[in-house]
From TrEMBL:
Membrane topology: Multi-pass membrane protein
Source organism superkingdom: Eukaryota
Region of interest (Disordered), ranges: 683-708
UniProt keyword Transmembrane, yes or no: yes
Gene: Dvir\GJ10832
Residues spanning the membrane: 400-426, 447-465, 534-553, 565-588, 637-655, 771-792
Functional description taken from the UniProt entry: Essential component of the vacuolar proton pump (V-ATPase), a multimeric enzyme that catalyzes the translocation of protons across the membranes. Required for assembly and activity of the V-ATPase.
Coiled-coil ranges per UniProt: 95-122
GO cellular component terms, A-Z: plasma membrane; vacuolar proton-transporting V-type ATPase, V0 domain
Any one of the GO BP annotations: vacuolar acidification
Name of the protein in its database record: V-type proton ATPase subunit a
Keywords recorded for this protein, A-Z: Coiled coil, Hydrogen ion transport, Ion transport, Membrane, Transmembrane, Transmembrane helix, Transport
Cell location: Membrane
Length: 836
């Protein structure tokens, strides 16, 4: 409990490590994850530090791994999961072998990729040529028929001028992207003034881009023209529109022969491409088995060199000096890690660890487990606790799910949350391996124990409210007796059941199920839950004020107990605590089982009106036969409480400033600065460390800012702000706890409306049609229940509970001015990169 009650005690340490053992020592410290290093080279540029070359070397290795990983994912090869067998940081010899292996693999992959692109480019060109030859058969059919007729008639029959005219007719064939065809056709018409005849045919199947693999839709075209000048213009237009031109003979036989040759070359090239793909797949499959391990090794190696850049070299250049924060409980672990690091390289000179005193506030470290981590994250989201101040997470483990359950009190809805949380808890090992679940899933899974407890407590409060999906359970039978006969009951729509004659006693546990049928159910539940929320709120705030005493005692600020805690707790208890007392006294005093009229329920005064009269020193005339006050001397007691409460205001306002003024010292005691050793603090393995930090340090760490140099005017202003804030917040925070009543009532009414407006419709239908309709209606009811009552109402209750803890509870004692302990941990580095 000590670890959870307040943050762990920290020590500022100096490390003296030999350069040859620095890499292995820092590697061992990274595996332990209990050291936060400080940067001793703040004034040195990042690119001028000692190990910047090694960091760049690691960056280059990471680049190669990313390239290989991209190629593996491109081929759809799955990478193995190594969460159970994470490798350690590589030693220098392994680094050289890894670097050579990655270099060889990258070079081979680049060559294979380049060859593949070249072969695919050739394959694309041959495919386009084949498409041109196949799709231009119809373009030349008329001309070939003409040539065939001419050859049959004989050469003498053909006119020489016709032959010359046909000889001057030329053509250009090729392919072009389909989206550029219309612009290409328009441009040809403009440059030739309509003297180009263009025929085109769209390819049915898309072609693949050699570099990206994306599909490309193209069109085959043949442009007929006359004259060399027009031919040159057409070629320039084709170049501008990125059209590919291919040779296409006009003779049918030549085209057929050319198509056969192209198809043969395509088959050969396809075989070569297939073999290249198989070789590439084999290489990638072999590399994929070790790639995750290599990636983790390089990340660890890079983290080690980044950490070594935080060290400083001594003047003799023979020792690396580093400073770090370490939990005092883990000092022996750090000492052992340094010894193991020196032994790993066979260093004859051991590494030293010295604990030094400092007046700097240490980081805050709360050691958590998988159960308490979620609750600690809720507290840290408000603000990191100041060093060694009380940690609210210990009490939040109980108060948070309980306050949530007060607003979410339904046995059925709580059971849904309980089952969902239990599923995540029981399957946490399997579910924890999910990496791409999304941010929302990570939030749910991280708070699985919070959801489990919220569901458990909601089942309890739902049982107390006797509310299951807006219906009540008749477990113990009703304690109310119907004294009316059957004819009276049937003749009257509503009848009153006086407690004196109809109630047999107190219901064993929770609410009597008879209230489910009562017309005044809302009035009764309003009164009950409103008072319950005020009682819980005052108790919660009183507990928060009492927690401040733990901080005052720990930081030796005993004067604050009398000057701050006593007036605060008196102000809270004498006013609002007295109001809670009146609620309980009213419940016990006034009863229907009495013959004294002043003690009957009809004479019970309103607690709210009585509290207002108490604050305003007013009186309200009671009804005839009743008393204004609940007991004798109540009027005088209330006036005394109000007067003492008013005295507490100047007590809080002036007490602390006047105490500081009269006790201010003229001289300031010597304070140890960073770097001063605490005597013989050179730790050997197994030695017990002395406590670090003086009482002055812990007082400053606890948020008690020193007032030695602060002007008195600022102290008065600061205390006035705190006093006004506490007095006003006591009133507003008490009213803020009424949200417990409001959300509980809203949740119950929404559940009842959903039952009456949806599910009950299917239950009231005719037997045959109702049986079919009930399936659909029940599905809609389940969907609305999960979406509205469980998820939306659950989120609303969660946020309101979070606000009650952050503002109403923690503001009474929690400062949250610290900064988190961020140790050098390989596990944290790897997990953080996986989340990104």
């Amino acid at each position: 409990m000590g670890d959870m009650f307040r943050s762990e005690q920290m020590a500022l340490c100096q490390m003296f490590i030999q350069p040859e053992a620095a890499y292995t020592s820092v590697s061992e410290l990274g595996e332990t994850g209990c050291v936060q290093f400080r940067d001793l080279n703040c004034t040195v540029n990042v690119f001028q530090r000692k190990f910047v070359t090694e960091v760049r070397r690691c960056d280059e290795l990471e680049r190669k791994i990313r390239y290989i990983e991209t190629e593996i994912k491109k081929d759809g090869i799955a990478l193995p999961d190594i969460q159970d067998d994470i490798p350690r940081a590589p030693n220098p010899r392994e680094i050289i072998d890894l670097e050579a292996h990655l270099e060889k693999t990258e070079t081979e992959m680049i060559e294979l990729a380049q060859n593949e692109v070249n072969m695919k480019s050739n394959y694309l060109e041959l495919t386009e040529l084949r498409k041109v030859l196949e799709n231009t058969q119809g373009f030349f059919s008329d001309q070939e028929v003409l040539n065939l007729d001419s050859s049959n008639r004989g050469a003498g029959v053909i006119d020489e001028a016709t032959v010359q005219h046909r000889g001057r007719l030329g053509f250009v064939a090729g392919v072009i992207n389909r989206e550029r065809v219309f612009g290409f056709e328009r441009m040809l018409w403009r440059i030739s003034r309509g003297n180009v005849f263009l025929k085109r045919s769209d390819l049915d199947e898309p072609l693949n881009d050699p570099a990206t693999g994306h599909p490309i839709y193209k069109t085959v075209f043949v442009a007929f023209f006359q004259g060399e000048q027009l031919k040159n213009r057409i070629k320039k237009v084709c170049t501008g529109f990125h059209a590919s031109l291919y040779p296409c003979p006009s003779s049918h036989n030549e085209r057929e022969e050319m198509v056969k040759n192209v198809r043969t070359r395509l088959e050969d090239l396809k075989l070569v491409l297939s073999q290249t793909e198989d070789h590439r797949s084999r290489v990638l499959a072999t590399v994929s088995k070790n790639l995750p391990s290599w990636s983790i090794m390089v990340k660890k190696m890079k983290a080690i060199y980044h950490t070594l850049n935080l060290f400083n070299m001594d003047v003799t250049k023979k020792c690396l000096i580093g400073e770090c924060w370490v939990p005092t409980k883990d000092l022996h672990i750090v000492q052992k890690a340094l010894s193991d690091g020196s032994a790993a390289v066979g260093s004859t000179i051991p590494s030293f660890l010295n604990v030094i005193d400092t007046n700097e506030m240490p980081p805050t470290f709360n050691r958590t487990n998988k159960f308490t981590r979620g609750f600690q994250n809720l507290i840290d989201a408000y603000g990191i606790a100041s060093y060694r101040e009380c940690n609210p997470a210990l009490y939040t483990c109980i108060t948070f799910p309980f306050l949530f359950a007060v607003m979410f009190g339904d046995l059925g809805h709580g059971l849904i949350l309980l089952l969902f949380g239990a599923w995540m808890v029981l399957s946490e090992r399997k579910l924890g391996r999910i990496k791409n679940g999304g941010e929302i899933w990570n939030i749910f899974f991280g708070g699985r124990y919070i959801i489990l407890l919220m569901g458990l407590f909601s089942c309890y409060t739902g049982f107390i409210y006797n509310d299951v999906f807006s219906k009540s359970m008749n477990l113990f039978g009703s304690n109310w007796v119907n004294n009316y006969n059957t004819s009276t009951v049937l003749a009257n729509p509503s009848l009153q059941m006086p407690p004196r004659t109809s109630a047999k006693g107190v219901y064993p546990l929770g609410l009597d199920p008879i209230w489910q049928l009562a017309d005044n159910k809302i009035i009764f539940l309003n009164s009950f839950k409103m008072k319950l929320s005020i009682i819980i709120g005052v108790l919660h705030m009183v507990f928060g004020v009492c927690m401040s005493v733990c901080n005052f005692v720990h930081f030796k600020r005993y004067s604050s107990i009398f000057l701050e805690f006593v007036p605060q707790i008196l102000f809270l208890l004498l006013l609002f605590g007295y109001m809670v007392f009146m609620m309980f006294f009213k419940w016990f005093k006034y009863t229907a089982f009495t013959d004294s009229q002043p003690e009957t329920p009809g004479c019970a005064p309103s607690v709210l009106i009585m509290f207002i009269n108490m604050m305003l020193f007013k009186n309200t005339p009671p009804p005839s036969g009743c008393k204004e006050f609940m007991f004798d001397a109540q009027d005088g007691l209330q006036k005394t409480f109000v007067i003492i409460g008013l005295i507490c205001v100047p007590w809080m306002l002036l007490g602390k400033p006047l105490y500081i003024k009269f006790t201010r010292r003229n001289t300031v005691a010597h304070v140890k600065h960073n770097g001063e050793l605490t005597g013989n603090m050179e730790l050997a393995e197994g030695e017990t460390p002395l406590p670090t930090g003086s009482s002055g340090q812990e007082e400053g760490a606890g948020g008690a800012h020193g007032h030695e140099d602060e002007p008195m005017s600022e102290i008065y202003i600061h205390q006035a702000i705190h006093t006004i804030e506490y007095v006003l917040s006591t009133i507003s925070h008490t009213a803020s706890y009424l949200r417990l009543w409001a959300l509980s009532l809203a949740h119950a009414q929404l559940s009842e409306v959903l039952w009456n407006m949806v599910l009950s419709l299917g239950l009231k239908m005719a037997p045959y049609t109702g049986a079919i309709a009930l399936f659909v209606i029940f599905g809609a009811w389940c969907m609305f229940t999960l979406a509205i009552l469980v998820m939306m109402e659950g989120l609303s209750a969660f946020l309101h509970t979070l606000r009650l803890h952050w503002v109403e509870f923690m503001s009474k004692f929690y400062e949250g001015l610290g900064y988190a302990f961020q140790p050098f941990s390989f596990k944290a580095i790897i997990d953080g990169e996986e989340e990104e």
